[in-house]
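Q&A log
Question type: sequence-to-structure
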Amino acid sequence: MQGIAGHKKRHMRGVLDYLDTFSLKTGIIVSLAPLSVTEFASGKKVINIPAYMLEKLGEYDIEEALYM
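Response status: OK
Response body:
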């Protein structure tokens, strides 16, 4: 069975492939993991948004929440 780190890598790889395919710079993953941003040397960025934040997403300043 694949560990948590393996699942994260697979999701991240999938998002990066999508970003490459559509020439985008930022992707989002919604999961139960804490709010985080992963930046890559290529200039691409993947933001992980915790599922509980979706209900109140309009009330959050994501950039501010990331750097508190």
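Response note: The chain has one domain: 4-66.
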